[in-house]
Amino acid sequence: MSILIPQELIERLAAARRVAVLTGAGISAESGIPTFRDALTGLWANYDPQELATPEGFARNPKLVWEWYAERRQRIAGVQPNPGHLALAALERRFAQFTLVTQNIDSLHQRAGSLAVVELHGNIARVKCSREETVVNEFPDSESPPRCPCGAFLRPDVVWFGEMLPAAEALARAEAAAGQCEVFLSIGTSAQVYPAAELPLRALSAGATIVEINPERTPLTRHAHFALQGAAGKVLPQLVARLASA
Ligand code: BV8
Fold first, then answer.
1. Residue whose CA lies nearest to ligand 1 atom number 32
2. 10-19, 35-44, 123-132, 224-233: lowest mean pLDDT where?
3. Which of 32-41, 123-132, 164-173, 212-221 has the lowest mean pLDDT?
4. Distance from C-alpha of 181 to C-alpha of 97, rounded to nearest angstrom
5. pLDDT band, very low/low/confident/very high, at 44 (cuts 50, 70, 90)
6. What is the mean pLDDT of residues 57-71?
7. Residues with CB under 6 A from ligand 1
């Protein structure tokens, strides 16, 4: 089922030199990764994600939080990038400046071949000491969570609610790309978590064309010049095909 992609959007993209993209959990949904809000199926059904993805949640129950991430890591290891990820990797090669900013922690953009990926919220494959913040490459799986040689628990190297985003470098790159792009695409995100959700608004105020790709409406939809209501894995390959013949 093809989604209507207005010719005006194709022409604006074809004429653009600088493009920025923000993705959220929705772009990994077609790979079989539950989106953040429905990540809590089964065993996790009765926990609030904002309860588990917080320093307080980890301090309160380090074993539970460690095991939630271990299960998510397992699930991610077993899936593949989907046509939406692959289409974004193809799009990157088409523009002089293309910045892909993701809220996701699953490495699927990199596995699909995207090169310039800005990970705002870290990466689940990395583990760090909860005290020293240093990334640890291997660790004993004797206890859960394992401990750093310094004695503190290890934790996933992701940004939890209430935590500052990593090295301002990632956020600064994302903000610069949003402020300079001619077209900004917000794909598969509920546009509720800050500061990521501020990026399309920054692009809008800098005069960029805002495109949203999401089966549902979000707080961003009313600001978008083009709201393509469909799945990323269906819409993005069509966008790439239309651009190729533009
Ligand atoms: C910060 C990593 C400064 C971990 C994530 C009170 C106290 C403290 C902070 C706050 C506060 N009030 C507000 C804040 C700020 C807070 C925030 O924004 N809260 C929200 C909930 C209001 N932000 C923070 O805390 C950030 N840090 O502000 O630092 C600071 C410091 C100290 C004190 C104050 C401020 C840090 C936020 C980062 C949290 N980490 N992830 C992990 O993954 O476990 S957030 C996590 O949820 C994701 O990374 C993502 O960013 C976020 C939202 O998820 P989405 O990606 O949008 O996914 P979601 O499920 O919501 O939606 C999926 C969408 O896809 C849907 O719209 C659906 O329709 C669509 N979809 C589905 N299928 C498809 C599809 N689209 C396309 N195709 C499909 N097939």
1. 162
2. 35-44
3. 32-41
4. 8
5. low
6. 94
7. 24-26, 29-30, 35-37, 53, 103, 105, 121, 158-165, 188-190, 192-194, 196, 213-216, 218, 231-233
Give the DSSP H or E segment for 228.
Answer: strand 226-228
In percent, how much of the chain has pLDDT > 90? 84
Q: pTM for the full model?
A: 0.95
Note the pLDDT of residue 138: 85
Distance 186 CA to ligand 1 centre (A): 14
Tell me the C-alpha to C-alpha distance, in Å, between residue 113 and each of 6, 135, 154, 216: 27, 24, 30, 27
Give the position of tokens 């699953």. Answer: 106
Apex 10 CA angle, 7 and 16, nearest 5: 145
Active-site residues, by number, are 121
